[in-house]
Amino acid sequence: MKQIKILGAGLSGLTAAINLALEGYKVKMFEKNNDCGKRFNNDFQGLENWESKVDILNDLKSMNIETNFYCKPFHTVWVYDFKLNKTKITSKTPVFYLVMRGNTKECLDIALKKQAIKLGVEINFNKTLAEKDANIIATGPKRVDAVAKGITFNTKTSDTAIGVLNDNIAPKGYAYLLVSAGKGTLATVLFKDFENIDYYFEKTIGTFNKIIDLKLKNIKEFGGYGNFFLSKKYEKNRKLFTGEIIGLQDFFLMFGMRYAITSGYLAAKSIIENKNYDDLIKYKFRNQLKTSIVNRFLFERLGNRGYQLLISKTKNVNELISFLNKQSNPSFNKKLIYPISKCVLKK
């Protein structure tokens, strides 16, 4: 029985481990923290459903991932501009599935851990491994391209998803509120001016107090960061790199769970079927990654007035998921803009 060693027990590493174990491989994982999901704070995140025409839950099933975690479809998103004009955007197909990240039983991270352990995967917590001794490297982001600060809390507010596009509270990023089943997450995501994150977060709190009466209880603060770059190679010295450590993330909005899980699946597939990992990743993601660079480039040139126009454009969209899917995938014009975008953003 061949042994595979995986460095990092996040989404991509666990997905790789699950699929390798299903094929009879002996899998050992090494995680520097004392449990899975310790990078997160039991906060809500959106499992993106617009990047592919295949629903993400069907995609997970095809990658042998059980949906035994908190997962709620959201069809409606309220979007506010800098003047707090609101727009309701709906979709027949879920825009995203609300999941929880962290180390409680409802969290996606713990669900994948339980599935891996059930299949015989050995997870060594509070232990690390030299990269030269690992087969798969899945250790998460190394650099900072976006930062987030937020809070989790309990509330009696009805389930909702709200986004705000306003450079005064989230420079070149966005602020969001996610509430479900009496729990909530409120955060701001910055792509610029990171050192002033505390200032922008306070302004974010003030903005949402004007939008909705939350009546927060059991407040806990959290922070995080995201990393994106367009790598030339995803396999180096016969080591397979998955998830954010190799820049696999949407650079436009920094959504990355689907990228992470899929890259873990493809790493396992390359080992099981003896296929070239670079080819698998590039075929699956390369065009979308380039498109996300163009989207980020264009978005950063809009400003608050531009965000207003962008929001107003969605008012006439019959099906939001189709609109977002179109924007996430390459077009002739975006292919033309890509070289300029890459040069300006230095990606």
Number of helices: 9
Tell me, what's the shape? Answer: globular
What is the domain total for the residues? 2
The structural class is alpha/beta
Regions with pLDDT < 50 over 5+ consecutive residues? none
CATH C-level name of the largest domain: Alpha Beta
How would you explain this protein's 3D organization?
It is built from nine helices and 16 strands. It is globular and about 60 Å long. The chain has helices spanning 11-22, 56-62, 108-118, 197-211, 257-272, 277-300, 303-314, 320-328, 332-345, and strands at 3-7, 26-31, 43-48, 71-74, 76-80, 86-90, 96-101, 122-125, 136-137, 146-154, 160-164, 174-180, 183-190, 217-226, 235-236, 239-241. Strands 6-5-11-12-13-10-14 form a seven-stranded mixed sheet, with helices on both faces. Strands 8-2-1-9-16-15 form a six-stranded mixed sheet, covered by helices on one side. With 347 residues, the chain is α/β, with parallel strands linked by helices. α1 runs parallel beside α3, α1 (11-22) runs parallel beside α5 and α6 crosses α9 (332-345). The protein has two domains: 3-65 and 104-143 and 227-288, 3-Layer(bba) Sandwich (FAD/NAD(P)-binding domain); 146-226, D-Amino Acid Oxidase, subunit A, domain 2 (D-Amino Acid Oxidase, Chain A, domain 2, 2-Layer Sandwich). The longest helix has 24 residues, at 277-300. A hairpin with a 2-residue loop joins β15 and β16 (239-241).
